[in-house]
Write the structure tokens for this entry.
Amino acid sequence: MNDSLQGRCERCGGRLEARQEGLTEGLFCTKCDWAVVTTHYPEIRLDRTSYEVRAVGGDHRSTEHVKAVANVAGTNFVAARKLLQESRPVVFRGTAKEVVEARSVLKDAGVGCHITPDFEW
């Protein structure tokens, strides 16, 4: 059997170590500079659907709620307060990865959200 399949470097026989940094992953020899790498894209990054996030249950009198909506919507405090006075306002549009971040900001502040289309992430 090939040594590299058993965790040994094909060049020097050193131990191979699996690493992942950002979008790169691979096997790296712990003794020499031999490596084999590839690009790894998580499924969520491949989802190009445009999603819409609506704030649900936010209180325009809550500073924490208004700040969270301002952050997610990319707007100022006054404009965010006006958004929260609407019924289920759209506060963000973006890709799945961006929506996960927006949802987290809202949730941490205690603001619910509704995402369309159906969001599996």
Helices lie at 43-46, 63-73, 77-84, 96-109. The beta strands are 16-21, 24-29, 35-39, 51-56, 90-94, 112-116. The longest strand covers residues 16-21.
